[in-house]
Every structure is written in structure tokens, then in C-alpha cells.
Amino acid sequence: MELKRLSHQGMLYTFTIVHRSFPGVAVPYVSAVVDLEGGGSIKGNLINVEPDPAHIHFGMPVEVVFRDALGRKDAQGNSYLSYFFQPVGQAR
Amino acid sequence: MTDVYVIGIDMMKFGRFPEQSVPQLGARAALLALDDAGVSLKQVEALYCANLGQANGMVGQRLLKEIGQTGIPVVNCANACAAGATAFREAWISIKAGLYDVVLAVGVEQMGRGLLGGSGAQGISTEGLLGSVTMPAVFAEAGMEHSRKYGTTFEQFAKVSVKNHKHSTLNPKAMYQYETPLETVMGAEMIAYPNTKLMCSVNVDGAAAAVLVSERKAKELGMKRAVRVKASVLTSDPWQERDLVMADINTCTRTAAQQAYAMAGVGPDELDLVELHDCFATAEILHYENLGLCADGEGGKLIDTGETMLGGRIPVNVSGGLLSKGHPLGATGIANIYEVSTHLRGEAGARQVEGARIGLTHVLGLGSACAIHILERVNS
User: Fold this and answer.
1) B277 catalytically annotated
2) Angle (deg, nearest 10), helices B59-67 and B22-37
3) What is the pLDDT of residue B144?
4) Is B81 tagged catalytic?
5) Which of A33, A51, B86, B295 could hold A28 in an S-S bridge, CB 3.0 to 4.6 Å?
6) pTM of this prediction?
């Protein structure tokens, strides 16, 4: 096993727009599977896009950005960072 | 090796029974199946019992405490939504192996309401942070993969639910018995696009049971209503590139179908009816192709043309399916076998598939486990 750095660039493979989730989870949001350039597939939220199928396209180029994990904290009060996807060409 | 026959099989009407315990529900189904077989519990040599909600709770043994502790071997079985079919298959294996002549398989579940799926994550919850792991979302993403490849539309997925709800009006044991027109299905609350609430299977309580016997025993008890198990197959999902983020529900179904058709010596064109795992409307269209009911990419067309309606070329989910009959996880695999067996026996009443001779049942447990059975009428 060796460490491998994954690309921050990828394309949208498939998605759904979640309108009902577990209690307390803010909706709607876009759950997306992204194939990264050079290999690897990851799943996450696609942000900075209308949660509407008319605005989301298979194969659209996206990039990986890092943000606070929606303010969620663990039992010890620790904050977390998470990755998100957004359409390319927006402010990182 | 002996052929294996279903000599008795039944299910309770699916619904909500909070006042009853899981073993009580299972015991009810067991007694129904034993009555149908004309067999006493004292003749049963082993019990395989499927349940997920109390998977470590010895449900099979507790079930016997309700109806008779005969001291037989009991195996409790969990395998996600394939649990019931897995219990049935273990019973089949034990008879094939020559160990027993009469074996009981029970599937039972008591469900809460609401979304299934869970992260089990430590630290913070990742639901809605790293996408969604709810079942409606997971199967929506699988459906959207099909849309990506073949252009399958929201409307085509919704038509699956229209069909299965229509079928359920003819099934007195279904949870729901009402029609849902296309605009009602598409206009229902969106859960995870393209799955609306009416395109998600119903969480219900229920139980189903089957008595399986060897050929020798079937001849002794009478073959008149016997159903021959032509194939019993169980697969798991082989490695795929996107495994870590997308459970593969397709490959294990395809390999199971190929193995089942080979074992039974029949092809998909010889099937008279199919009960497949429509946990979400999106899934049914994928499985049309996975089971070879149509060519790849033709699943949307198959629902458009009505070929999978009762009266069509290959009726699918005439019971109402998981979408309308209901989906008590551990019971579903045996309930599907009950449905096909009832048609092969010519006892399905208003929803009877005329002249049904061979049928297929399919269940898919996410994670993944796929079980397929091919069943054949004995008396023609």
C-alpha cells in the first residue's frame, strides 16, 4: 500500500437530490458521485448549484473544495473540515 | 441429489401489528404454511428463520416457544433484504444434501416507519455532509446511473409504481390496495430525485413461511399442489471501481440470473411471471435488464409498452411488489416465493397469470446479496 494524492478535479458520474433525510439534516441537497481525474471515485455534497435536475448534468466538470463540516461537532466539541464538490469556475 | 419441492407456503397479510412480537408474527406464518402443507410441526426436521431487526435475538427458537419446542436444529439468518430467500435456500441446501426430508423456512420482520439506511459513523454524522446513505438516495443514484447511460426518465421510473400499485388492488394480502395514477406518483412528496414517496417501498410488519420437502416426501404427501425448485442461487457483489461510494446492485443480480437460468435449464423468455426486488421504483427498471427480461437499455421501453403488466408478455410484481404489497425485510424473500408459487398452483384468483408454468423470484440485499429462485409447476 502506498499513499496516493487524488486529483481535485473530476466529473459528475451520478447524483440524486435529497429532499428528505434523517431528522435534523438540512434539505434539499445534492448527493453526488464524482469520478476524479486520474482515478478514484468519491461521494459527497455538490454545492453552489441549484438543487434542480435541470441545472445538474451528467459529466459536468466539478472541483473538490474544503469547508467547515456544516458546523457539526462531535461529542467532545471538536469541529471538522469536509470536502465538497462545486462546479468549476467558482471561487474556491 | 433429490429434487426439492415447496409443499406448503403462505404469508400473512402485510400491515402494522405493533401489539404482536416478532416471534408471534413468525409463528403465525409458520402455522399457515404447515396447514397449507398438511404437515405437523412434529414432522419438521429443521427450521431456518430470517429476521434483521432482532438478528441476534434467536427469533427462530422463540418462534418455536410459541408453537412447539420440538428440539430441532434452528438457524437464524440475516442477509439484508435477501435474508428470507437465504433462509429458504439454506432449507433447500439441507434437503439437497440429504440431511432432511421436511424443513421449514420462515421470514419475519417488524418495522418502524421512516427512512432506512445508516452511517454507523464515529465523530460526526456524515449524512447530508458526504452525500446521502439513505436507501431512497442510494437507489436514486443507481437509477440516475441508468438515466445517464440510456436516458431513462423520471416518468418511466414513476410508471413502475403506477403498475405495481394497480396490481396490488387484486391482492388481498397487500398492505395497500389502491391505484396511484401517474400524476399522483410524480406529484407525491419528493424523497430523493427521482424517487417520490410513492416510489419507495412501504415499511410494514409481516411474515411468510414455506415447507420444503424432498422428492420422496413430496410423493408421499401428494404432488398435486407441489412446486419444484428448479434453481436456487445466491451471489455477492464482485469488486467494482466505484464500490466504496456506490453499492453495486447490478452485477450480483446479473451473475445470479445467469447461474439460475443455467441451473434450471430455462431462459428468461420461458418465464411466465417474475417477482423482483422493487425496493424503489428505480430498481425495477434496472432489474428488467439484469434479469434478461429485455436487452440492456430497453428497460424504460419495457415499462412504456406495458409488457410487464398483468396480461402483458412478462408480468412483473403482480403481487403489488414491495412498493405496494409492502417490504418487511426478512419476510420479503419468502413472500415473493409465495406469490410465484400461488400462480404456479393456479390459486392466485383475480390476479392469476393464466397458465403460469415457470416463475422467477429475485431479492437484493444492499451490501450486497442477491438471491434468485426459479420455480416450476409440477402438475400440468
Assistant:
1) no
2) 60
3) 98
4) yes
5) A51
6) 0.95
